[in-house]
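Example 4.3 (complexes with small molecules)
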Amino acid sequence: MSAEAFLQIKNIVKDFDGHRAVDNVSIDIAKGEVFALLGSSGCGKTTLLRMLAGFETPTSGTITLDGRDLADLPPYERPMNMMFQSYALFPHLSVFDNIAFGLRRDHLPKDEVRTRVEAMLKLVQLEPYAKRKPHQLSGGQQQRVALARSLAKKPQLLLLDEPLGALDKKLREETQIELANIVHDVGVTCVMVTHDQEEAMTMASRIAVMSEGRFLQVGAPAEIYETPASRFVADFIGNVNLMDGTLVEDEADHVVVDCGDIRHRVGHGITGTRGMAVTVALRPEKIRLRRDGLKSTAVPEAGINRAHGTIKEIAYFGSFTVYHLQMASGRVLKISQSNVDRQPGAPLTWGNAAWASWTDLAQVVLTQ
Ligand SMILES: Nc1ncnc2c1ncn2[C@@H]1O[C@H](COP(=O)(O)OP(=O)(O)OP(=O)(O)O)[C@@H](O)[C@H]1O
Ligand SMILES: [Mg+2]
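Answer. The structure with adenosine-5'-triphosphate bound is encoded below.
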């Protein structure tokens, strides 16, 4: 056990009638961390969260919070609060009374209830809305009331299941940052579940990428994005070009991977052996796209870290544009270019021939 582990999950397994929903998960979470479980539908996120909350009993394994084994602690005695996807505010109660609900149920003195609710209203910036009913609030405001209610009892651990799932995309993006700020300000340790990678990236200090009940990779958002450990993770987080190839050169400072029509020179952290089958992952934004002729130097046919092709697709996203560059072999490279210039001189368009190039630090070489 690491010294600062506040929440410790050890070899947790959950079987439902022979179906393994959570498969031997172990993780130490430090105090104050915001930890996200990220994965596609059915991978076991909610099940793991429900075991933390005590709504499900693990088939095997242990969960300890601040050194205390939670096994025999019923949900209502656990020092944690779970906020569900449909945050279910009481429609007939005012914002104030919604936040006060759990405190009154615990028979806190009236003054204490008032002080805490007011502090919570201030925290989520809803002081002027205390008297309103939930239906008189926007979705994002309701969500903040639910968060205030979850935090009012000062839980040691906050569990959020798809906290922003009920909001539309635009509102979700705004609320993500607000929610992250509130959680950080309070300093509460938080485990959140999401299948939205942007939500995980913006809110969490660490992310566990889950698949079929297991943790495939755990790391800080940038770590997961820039150095994915496997094809699955590279492909699951963001966009990526995956190219299968063979390691043909293995030097101290670089390796060369032959992917047929593209040869990659990779200048960082690879240990492999010649002849080994690998996959090169290359993010679209790490590629530069240029028109024919812009490059004055002669470019070899099968260049290293570059490719020649024809633009087959263009998707304009406002701040960036995604191009599909088809090579003679038929391979398509996805390339994204940020639209720095408002009125570019001669924009690339359908059917243009173009060169793609990238540096030897742009790729990740994957062996699994
Ligand atoms: N009470 C249950 N009884 C039987 N099977 C269950 C039960 N709860 C969950 N499962 C199964 O366990 C697996 C994991 O479910 P879980 O709800 O944890 O997924 P999830 O990752 O939260 O998915 P989503 O993103 O769709 O919410 C699924 O195959 C699900 O059908
Ligand atoms: Mg779920």
